[in-house]
Every structure is written in C-alpha cells, then in structure tokens.
Specification:
Length: 443
C-alpha cells in the first residue's frame, strides 16, 4: 500500500487530468461486483444468463474501471455540441450529402438514436477519432455501471451516482416516435423490431435481448428479427404478422442497399415506419470523409461556423485526408504517421495502422474509398492480470442523442484496434475525476 500521489512528477500541476493519469497507472482495483452484474443482466423475463455471457464472451467486460478527468469529459461534451451545430448548417449538409448514397437524401423527422463519438486522450486532450451512427453497447454499459463497487477510499469518492440510464433510453425511443409523427395521428409507440442480420449470431446479441426486455417492461411490444422477416404491403411494415411502429436498426448496411433489406428500405422511404438510426444520420455524422470537411478551417469559416467553435474543432479532430490513387504514393511514403480507415467502415473492420501496413494491402487502400487520419496514440490503463501488470490501450465512447451525452464508457484492449479479444479487456465503466478529489492509498 502506498500513496498514488508519490508517483506524480514534481513538475506537473496536480489537476484532475494529472490525477486521472496517476490513477490509471497506479490503481489496480477490481471494481466489478459480478453478483450485482448478474442481477442487472438477469432481471426480468428472458433468456440472458450472466454465466453464459461470460462463457461465450469472456472479454466483453473488463473487471476494472477507467479514470477520466472531469475536464476531459466536459471538453468531449462541448465537441459534441459544436458538431451538432455544424451538422445543422445547410452548406455542411450539402457538401456531405453530395457523396452519400441517394437514400441518404431522404430526410425523416426522427433524429437517430445512439450516435457514438469515439475519442482518444492524446497529449492535447480528447481527440475525436470517429463517429458511429449505430453505436452498440449502451445498455450493456448501463448494466456494468450499476455493478461497480468501491475497492478503496479514493475510488469511493468517484462511484457514479445512481442515474436512470435505462429510463432515458426508453424515453429516447419514444421521442423518436413523437418526432416522426409530429402533426400526425397521436398514439403511443406500441411495437419495436430490433433488426440485424442473423441477430442471434451477432457478438452483441445479448444486448438485443436486454433491449427487448426493457421495451416489454415499459409496455412496448418488442421483437428481435432478421430483416428477412420484415414485409411491407405499401401501407405498413410487419414482422411475423404483427405491425411494426419503429425499427431499432442495428444493420451495418447503412444505405439499405442489399436485396434482403428491400422491404425495410421501401417502408422507410414511404415514411411508413420510424427507422432509427437511419441512412441520413449515418451520412451526416458517420461517414469518415466528413472529418475532412470538419478539419477544413477555411471552409468552416466561409459557411459561418463561429471562431470559438472552429478553434475547438481544430484542437479536437486529428488531421484527416481522403486517399486518392493520385496521392497514394505520398501516403505510402509517409504511412507511419497515418491510420487508414474505410470511409463507410465500422467496428475497426479493414482499418490499418500505417506502420503495420503491407504494400499488397495498401494497393487496395490506394484505389479510393479510404481516409488517412493522423495517428493519435491512445492513453493507457495499467492493470494486474493474473498477478502480472499489463498496459492496456483505451478509447472513450460518448453515447449521444440530439446533442446530449447520455453515457460515457471505455473500451480496453491490446493490439491495433478495439477487439474484445484481450484477456482483462472489454467494456469498462468510466469514473469521473474531479479537481477536488483527494487521492490516497489505492492498491
């Protein structure tokens, strides 16, 4: 046992950022109470088993928390607010929709649930590495948050307050229904289909069951379905013979272009169902090429983005450029400074760190459809796994609805990208560190 503050260099000011860094390096606490997690996962009717979840997905949840300064949490929230304002500017929408699929030009009234703003904590503070339009894990992380325990006095000061995250999530879906039907027939949301391809085979399938139970507990009929189970008769979308009011869309075909999504696409374009998230939300927020526009300070000034907002974006978005065949050689020569991502990608699929990239793979990248983003090394969390101290990389996901952050979680991993394959890694609860925190012994 020793004071964590003994490891703070004298030259550093003792602010909440420094304290969070010290805790992430020196506090090896196990914070997850698995009995509490079991209750959170298994409450209500359903088939979700805590034991089965750990057996089939042993690296879904980390056993420890991640410490983030209140200052960094506030800065991430400000970035979210600014980006929501920029996305509302007509010139921005015109620019990004120009390279979007035609279906994205359909403008539904629904806002779109579960935007995921993903950040690394670099030397200059939080850096937005990407935005995802159907970010998974929010409900799993809400359960994880309720299963945290204090392993020492320092951590006890940071235990998250009891917050009704689940209630806020149900309210969000009801808001989507209300927004979409503004001026129409006023009736309550009655049915939701949670839709993904072969849902039972998806890694986050347990979350689908959690959502089904949550909706049912709040008086909303809910089904987990493959898109092939949907039918559209020109008036209404149905699943297994039952009318569907709203589709919670977990598909990664963001343009609904695949043949098996035809019924859902037709119903969406006819405004016969509320689809959330939807193709336009992905085009406006999640296409990686948008980061090129958001980093174009001169253009942002021309379209009327205020100075203060531009300064925040300039300090929070790593340099991002689109890769074209004619610029490929320059990117190859400087590849060690870049991370290459598919413009419409998701979940770290087909992403490559430049210093690990082979010439053969780069030939595919150089054909287009990729962006190059300046490498921002993630911050780290040191944990003791099976008696051995190990350093884990981490990123932070802000779950956002209509510009408001609902929940912040971390993902711990080793390797190039988040992977849920690292022993000791996975989703981790975020503990906010205030500048008034008193840190003592925590080992």
């Amino acid at each position: 046992m020793h004071s964590l503050l003994q490891s703070v260099p004298d030259r550093l000011p003792l602010d909440c950022r420094t304290t969070a860094e010290v805790l992430n390096r020196g506090c090896a606490c196990i914070s997850v109470d698995h009995e509490s997690l079991k209750r959170a996962l298994e409450t209500g009717e359903g088939t979700l088993s805590h034991a089965q979840l750990l057996a089939t997905r042993p690296h879904l949840f980390a056993d420890s928390m991640v410490f983030v300064s209140a200052e960094h949490l506030a800065r991430m929230a400000r970035v979210v607010e600014v980006l929501e304002r920029v996305v509302a500017v007509p010139a921005y929408r015109e620019r990004v929709l120009a390279h979007a699929p035609a279906v994205a030009r359909h403008s539904p009234r629904a806002a779109g649930v579960f935007l995921g703003y993903d950040f690394h904590l670099g030397p200059a503070g939080p850096q937005l590495i990407e935005i995802n339009s159907n970010a998974g894990g929010a409900l799993l992380n809400a359960c994880l948050l309720r299963a945290q325990r204090a392993c020492c006095a320092s951590v006890a000061q940071m235990l998250p307050a009891e917050t009704p995250v689940e209630a806020a999530l149900v309210a969000m879906f009801r808001d989507e229904w209300r927004l979409a039907r503004r001026g129409g027939v006023d009736r309550p949301l009655a049915s939701i289909a949670i839709v993904d391809t072969l849902p039972e085979q998806q890694y986050l399938a347990p979350e689908f069951e959690l959502f089904r139970r949550l909706f049912e507990a709040n008086g909303i009929l809910a089904m987990i379905a493959d898109p092939a189970e949907l039918t559209f008769d020109g008036q209404r979308l149905s699943c297994r013979g039952l009318r569907v009011d709203l589709v919670y869309n977990r598909l990664t075909d963001f343009a609904l272009a695949e043949p098996q999504h035809a019924a859902l696409r037709m119903a969406y374009l006819a405004d016969a169902v509320v689809l959330t998230p939807h193709p336009q939300q992905h085009a406006l927020f999640a296409d990686k090429r948008n980061l090129v526009a958001l980093g174009d300070d001169e253009w942002l000034a021309r379209i009327g983005v205020e100075d203060e907002d531009r300064r925040l974006l300039a300090g929070s978005i790593p340099r991002t450029e689109e890769v074209f065949p004619e610029t490929a050689e320059a990117f190859w020569n400087g590849r060690k400074q870049w991370f290459f991502k598919p413009a419409a990608g998701f979940g770290s699929k087909a992403t490559y760190r430049g210093d690990k990239l082979t010439r053969r793979v780069f030939e595919d990248v150089s054909r287009g459809g990729y962006v190059a983003q300046a490498v921002v090394a993630p911050s780290e969390r040191r944990l003791r796994i099976d008696g051995v101290e190990q350093d884990f990389k981490l990123d932070l996901r802000n779950y956002v609805y209509r510009g408001a952050v609902q929940l912040v979680s971390a993902r711990l991993y080793r390797g190039q990208t988040t992977n849920f394959r690292t022993p000791g890694g996975g989703f981790a609860a975020v503990f906010p560190v205030s500048c008034q925190l008193k840190v003592g012994n925590c080992r």
